[in-house]
Please model this.
Amino acid sequence: EPEVTQTPSHQVTQMGQEVILRCVPISNHLYFYWYRQILGQKVEFLVSFYNNEISEKSEIFDDQFSVERPDGSNFTLKIRSTKLEDSAMYFCASSENRGVNEQYFGPGTRLTVT
Amino acid sequence: QKEVEQNSGPLSVPEGAIASLNCTYSDRVSQSFFWYRQYSGKSPELIMSIYSNGDKEDGRFTAQLNKASQYVSLLIRDSQPSDSATYLCAVLSNTGNQFYFGTGTSLTVIP
Model:
């Protein structure tokens, strides 16, 4: 069964450093998303992406964040200058279409900022 | 701010019993609703979607939706210890671009 994959599974970085989180969505899906979950808290939407542009972003997704689909399979989230409060699980998701879509989540990347 | 509310639990049920999980949402025009299961340290796993008022059954799971009351629920029949997890209610935004998640209900099925 097709699934969303993410790398790395765990990333440790120092405050102020840049990190890139990678995702490979399900191959026939057209809509891509990033969510985060701070430990013990709810899953929060960051950004959605379709047709090589951002469809919607939340207040969390400020100028330090960016997304890119550099080729036909990868979807990346870059955090330019990490802060301690960026420590969280970051989930990539994809869906075949919008509207009544069903979003399938990857296993997540645990980001630890020290 | 779109709100999705769930009882955080923990909810404990004996093996073989019915577990009932509830969710309310604030946006009256929401149309699409989803239940996810999340094991500790893992990602959300889709269980069911529901779009129309009434019941939708899939195996041991039944989702119920009442748009007038802005209420969606999940029933798990014949609960198994492997059902022990946090259950997340998700409501799709009107733009179709994002989910609003509840904080989740922790379920423990006691053998």
About this structure: The interface with chain B takes residues 33, 35, 41-45, 48, 55-56, 58, 89, 91, 98-108 of chain A (CB under 8 Å). The mean pLDDT of chain A is 94. The two ends of chain A are 37 Å apart (CA to CA).
